Amino acid sequence: MAEFTMELNDEQKEVRDWLHGFAADVIRPAAAEWDEREETPWPVIQEAAKVGIYSLDFYAQQYFDPTGLGIPMAMEELFWGDAGIALSIVGTGLAAVGVLANGTEEQIGTWVPQMYGDANDVKLAAFCSSEPDAGSDVASMRTRAVYDEAKDEWVINGTKTWATNGGIANVHVVVAVVDPELGSKGHASFIVPPNTPGLAQGQKFKKHGIRASHTAEVVLDNVRVPGSCLLGGKAKLDERLARARERAKAGGERVKNAAMATFEASRPAVGAMAVGTARAAYEVALDYAMTREQFGRPIIDNQGVAFQLAEMATQIDAARLLVWRASWMAVNGKPFTAAEGSMSKLFASETAKKVTAQAIQILGGNGYTREYPVERMHRDSAIYTIFEGTSEIQRLVIARTLSGMPIR
Ligand SMILES: Cc1cc2nc3c(=O)[nH]c(=O)nc-3n(C[C@H](O)[C@H](O)[C@H](O)COP(=O)(O)OP(=O)(O)OC[C@H]3O[C@@H](n4cnc5c(N)ncnc54)[C@H](O)[C@@H]3O)c2cc1C
C-alpha cells in the first residue's frame, strides 16, 4: 500500500503542468463560446484526444496510480479550465468506471475502447442510472431487464433521465432492475452497444450551468442486448442475487449494488472537479482584487476583501486535502469507515459554491456579467452539490456511518 502523501512526485508534477497547459490554452479560451452554444464541444474533445488527454490509457494510468493523487490532480486541472467542457471530456469516464468496477476482463477489453474511439473519430459513453422517480432514492428504479433464456438476451424497458452524454454516446451503460423483490440489491448494469434498436434520446435539458455538457433523457423501448452485455456475467449475478435473498431472509447485512459502487469510487473525483472550479474563481478574484482600485488603493487593501480571499484559499486547500485522502483510501482499498468519500465530496462541492459566489462579490458589477468568467463558474459550481449524490445525501451517508443509526 502506498503511503499517504500530500505532495505530487516529479512525474505527477509534469503531468499536472501538461494538463494545466491544455486547460489554459485550449479549454479556457473556448469556455464562454460553448457555454453559450449549449452543445457538446466536439472539436475540443478531439484536441484532447489528439494529445492523449481523452483516452482510456490516460485515465487508466491515473486511476491505478497507487498514491491516489492521479485522478484528483487531473480533474482539478481540467475543471480549472472550464467545468462544462471538462465534463464533456471526462463524462465518458463514469461509464468506463462502471465497466472497470463491475465488468469482466473481456467486457473491459471490448467496450471501454469503443467508449473513447480514437483521435480521428472520437466517441462518448453515458452512465444511465437516474430516473424521473429515482434520483436520490435509487431503490425506486423502474427500468426493468428481463432475461430471455431461449435467445440468451436481456430485454430492457424504461426511461432514464439526467444522463450525461445520453443519446449521443456510442456506448450506454444502463442500470436496471433484475429482481424487484430485492430493492436496490436487485439491480444490475448492462452495456447497450452502439446503434442498438430501441434506445433513443428523449428531451435534452437546458441547464443553469455546465452547459457545454450534454444532459438528456434516454428511452429504452424493448432494447435487446446479448447475454454477454450483462456486466460481470450471469453466474456472478445469480450468485450475488442468491446471497442478497439469503440476507433478506435473515433480515441482515446490507450489500452494495453495482450503481452504488460506481458512485462511491467517483465521489472524491467529483470533489476534485469542484476544487478546480473553486480555484479558478479564487485566482480571478485575487488578481482582480490586486489590480482594481477604489478610494485610491487596490481593493485588496481592505481587510473586508483580503479576509474573504484568505477564507477562500483556506477552504480550497482543506477541500483538496479531504479529496486527496479519500482518493488515496479508495485506490488502496481502505474502506471509508467514516464516510471519507462523502465527506470529501460534501465539503469540496459546498466550497465551490461558496467561493464562486464570493468571487462574484469581489468583482462587483463585473463579476455579475458574462465579460468575466466568475458568473459562469458560479453557475457551473451548483452541479457539484447535486450530481453523484446531493449534499443532503452525503450528510445522510456520513451521519449513518458515524452513528450506525438508520437516520432518515
Ligand atoms: C447535469 C446533471 C448531470 C447528471 N448526470 C448523470 C449521469 O450521467 N448519470 C446518472 O445516472 N445521473 C446523472 N445525474 C442525476 C443526478 O445524480 C441526480 O440529479 C441526483 O442524484 C439527485 O436526484 P434528483 O435530481 O432526482 O433529486 P431528488 O432525489 O428528487 O432530490 C431533491 C431534493 O431532495 C433532497 N432529498 C432527497 N432525499 C432526501 C433525504 N432522504 N434526506 C434529505 N434530503 C433529501 C435532495 O438532497 C434534493 O435537495 C445528473 C444530474 C444533473 C443535473
From TrEMBL:
SUPFAM superfamilies: Acyl-CoA dehydrogenase C-terminal domain-like, Acyl-CoA dehydrogenase NM domain-like. The keyword Nucleotide-binding does not apply. Residues 9-115 form the Acyl-CoA dehydrogenase/oxidase N-terminal domain. Its cofactor is FAD. Gene3D superfamilies: Acyl-CoA dehydrogenase/oxidase, N-terminal domain, Butyryl-CoA Dehydrogenase, subunit A, domain 2, Butyryl-CoA Dehydrogenase, subunit A, domain 3. InterPro entries: Acyl-CoA_DH_CS (IPR006089), Acyl-CoA_Oxase/DH_mid-dom (IPR006091), Acyl-CoA_Oxase/DH_mid-dom_sf (IPR046373), AcylCo_DH-like_C (IPR036250), AcylCo_DH/oxidase_C (IPR009075), AcylCoA_DH/ox_N (IPR013786), AcylCoA_DH/ox_N_sf (IPR037069), AcylCoA_DH/oxidase_NM_dom_sf (IPR009100). Keywords: FAD, Flavoprotein, Oxidoreductase. Residues 126-223 form the Acyl-CoA oxidase/dehydrogenase middle domain. Pfam families: Acyl-CoA_dh_1, Acyl-CoA_dh_M, Acyl-CoA_dh_N. GO terms for molecular function: acyl-CoA dehydrogenase activity; flavin adenine dinucleotide binding. Residues 258-402 form the Acyl-CoA dehydrogenase/oxidase C-terminal domain. Belongs to the acyl-CoA dehydrogenase family. This is Acyl-CoA dehydrogenase. It comes from Streptomyces cyaneochromogenes.
